[in-house]
Amino acid sequence: MALPTSAHRYEAGDAWLANSCAHPNLVRDVWAADMLARSPPARSGSSPRHGSAPGYPRLARIRSEQRGPVLADPVMDALLWLVSLHAAEELADVRGLVVKPAGWSLHCPPTGWQMDGRMWITRPDGSGLLTDPAVLAAAFGPGGYRLPAEAP
């Protein structure tokens, strides 16, 4: 049995990103032209931003199964996490995070490519999983995120 190609592996994430836009085919056409597409996080979530130098250690504090899509932008020296639209209130007081307002457009490459320096550190997988704002906030705290203690 043949292994799936990279294109097939990333197809679900690309579909999820494209379908978050009013014109999914236009997004795909822009990607086919090797350009960043504007994907409005209005449907998929807002995007807190943090400088990438301190952001990478915080990324490692979040377990992979709890981490939604994370886009790296070396030009802006930033990591961008996709979170729910309702996360702004929960993240408002987190030092070092800037939460983008509703309607802000995320310029992103398809999941399997790097374009204009931007690349997905944690790729969208099509499931719609977003980073929980409580987990993200805790990762920016002094001790990082800790799983809740189980009752004896």
User: What is Rg?
Assistant: 16 Å
* Mean pLDDT over the full residue set: 80
Question: Which band does the percent of strand residues land in?
Answer: 15-25%
Beta-strand segment tally = 7
- Strand order, biggest sheet? 5-2-4-3-7
Gross morphology: globular
Structural class: alpha+beta
How many H/I helices? 6
Give the low-pLDDT segments: none
Distance between the termini: 47 Å
Oligomer: single chain
* Helicity range: 25-40%
Order of helices and strands: HHEHEHEEHEEEH
| Biggest sheet overview | 5 strands, antiparallel
Question: What is the element layout, followed by pairings?
Answer:
Elements: H1 6-19, H2 24-32, E1 37-39, H3 41-44, E2 48-51, H4 52-60, E3 70-73, E4 78-81, H5 87-91, E5 98-99, E6 106-108, E7 119-122, H6 133-139
Antiparallel strand pairs: 1-6, 2-4, 2-5, 3-4, 3-7
